[in-house]
Design brief:
- GO terms for molecular function: hydrolase activity.
- This is Dienelactone hydrolase.
- Keywords: Hydrolase.
- InterPro entries: AB_hydrolase_fold, FrsA_esterase, Xaa-Pro-like_dom.
- There is one protein chain.
- With about 425 residues, the protein is α/β, with parallel strands linked by helices.
- It has two domains: about 140 residues, no CATH class; about 250 residues, Rossmann fold (3-Layer(aba) Sandwich).
- It is built from nine helices and 14 strands.
- It has an eight-stranded mixed β-sheet, with helices on both faces.
- A hairpin with a 5-residue loop joins strand 11 and strand 12.
- Helix 2 packs across helix 4 and helix 4 packs parallel to helix 5.
- It is globular, with a radius of gyration of 22 Å.
- It starts with 14 loop residues before the first strand and ends in a 23-residue tail after the last helix.
């Protein structure tokens, strides 16, 4: 529930690893709608005929509006875009809803549950950006027809491939759009044996020549895809041909700056420069709402965090997995089942729920959280669970599906 100053209410898929009694397994979990941000999913018409439908996540404050709008454009995971999950950018969405914005995250044609077809132009980065920008333009045009959207106060942002699409979008006439934000924008193509870096520089030069809107660019020092040298070249090509852009090159962010805006800790990096940019283009920055925090499990005194042998039910393989967990980044969570199944999840949206859901799916039994971040949250094990563990110890482990791999990543992965 979102309330004005007494009280808007906090979820990107990061990395998740799950192991049952035998091999390493992983599954992706669809997160529930966050009622605290009035989250819902709508379908937006796209394409020349308007018959394709884009699965779009919407967050908004309570009330009739009209509200300013932020559209956030997603990147691309490796492989089939139809297998990609719905992006939400929950941490950035929360920050903007607190400031009275509606936030929309459209999944472009062929991605996730959106219909239509994803078109890949290989190493022609200019064409790739323009193709994706067409879907973003459809989302902008749709949003401007809604009576709870302020059609004259819109900002468009994008991460990775979404950043490339955002800058391509800025070459056309966009009524109501005041500015663009490019977070680690680009597209990597290792499949076509081409110089994709040079093609990206060429694409941004082309977009700069036709650019119509001011933009903010943010790239991190340890971005695994588009490092400082390439970011500087892309920006230089853009402004040299006439583009309006301020480049912010920030330092290292955790293991990979490419997923910075998807991180719980990313706002500390992106907000200051984003606030400055929003003020420059006449967009609001003052907090108008509060977001009720998620309830937290209380810390227990069951064991020390680094006491691997204290974790119940684990085999030697599971203890190895817990040692791996101790080296993971926060936010993180570790779950375990009576039959020895376990799972850890780090970064991204709601690692607690992801760890539990994957542990239960792979273990076939209810799981419990053992640790969250740097705390132990486990309570004493009931006798019934101890008996279940004894039975599980002499029960053959389930076979793993042949197509299971080992880890799943999203916006933080190096596949954009």
């Amino acid at each position: 529930m979102i309330k004005r100053i007494p009280s808007v209410r906090n979820f990107t898929l990061g990395l998740i690893v799950s192991l049952t009694l035998l091999p390493s397994l992983a599954v992706e979990q669809e997160l529930q709608l966050d009622y605290r941000l009035n989250e819902r999913i709508v379908l937006i018409p796209a394409g020349k005929t308007g018959k394709a439908m884009m699965e779009t996540t919407v967050f908004r404050p309570n009330g009739p509006g009209p509200y300013p709008l932020l559209i956030i454009n997603h990147g691309k995971d490796a492989g089939d875009p139809g297998r990609q999950t719905r992006d939400r950018f929950i941490y950035m969405a929360t920050a903007f809803v607190k400031r009275g914005y509606v936030v929309m995250v459209p999944m472009r044609q062929g991605f996730a549950n959106s219909t239509g077809r994803y078109t890949d132009f290989g190493c022609d980065m200019t064409a790739n950006g323009y193709a994706q920008a067409n879907d973003v333009r459809d989302a902008v045009n749709f949003a401007r027809t809604l009576d709870w959207i302020d059609a004259d106060r819109i900002v468009v942002a994008g991460q990775s491939y979404g950043g490339l699409a955002t800058m391509a979008l800025g070459t056309g006439d966009l009524p109501g759009v005041r500015g663009l934000i490019n977070f680690a924008g680009g597209l990597r193509d290792d499949a076509n044996l081409c110089d994709w870096r040079a093609e990206l520089v060429r694409a941004f030069g082309t977009y700069g020549a036709a650019n119509k809107l001011p933009s903010l660019w943010m790239y991190g020092a340890n971005d695994s895809l588009f490092g400082p040298e390439l970011a500087t070249r892309m920006h230089a090509a853009f402004v040299r041909t006439g583009g309006q852009a301020r480049l912010v090159e920030y330092g290292k962010f955790k293991r990979d700056a490419h997923g910075m805006i998807a991180s719980r800790d990313g706002e500390k990096v992106w907000w200051r420069d984003t606030e400055r940019f929003l003020k420059q283009i006449g967009m609001p920055t003052e907090e108008l709402y509060t977001v009720t925090a998620q309830p937290q499990m209380p810390k227990s005194d069951f064991a020390r965090l680094d006491d691997v042998d204290a974790v119940p039910f684990l085999t030697e393989n599971g203890r190895k997995g817990y040692r791996e967990y101790l080296a993971r980044m926060t936010p993180r969570a570790f779950a375990v089942a009576p039959n020895g199944a376990w799972c850890w999840a780090e970064e991204g949206e709601d690692p607690d729920a992801r760890a539990l859901a994957t542990c239960e799916k792979k273990g076939g039994q209810p799981c419990k959280l053992y640790s969250i971040d740097d705390n132990i949250v486990w309570r004493d094990v009931p006798a019934s669970l101890e008996r279940a563990a004894t039975i599980a110890a002499v029960t053959p482990a389930p076979m793993a599906p042949a197509r299971s791999t080992g880890a799943i990543g999203s916006t933080a992965a190096v596949s954009d």
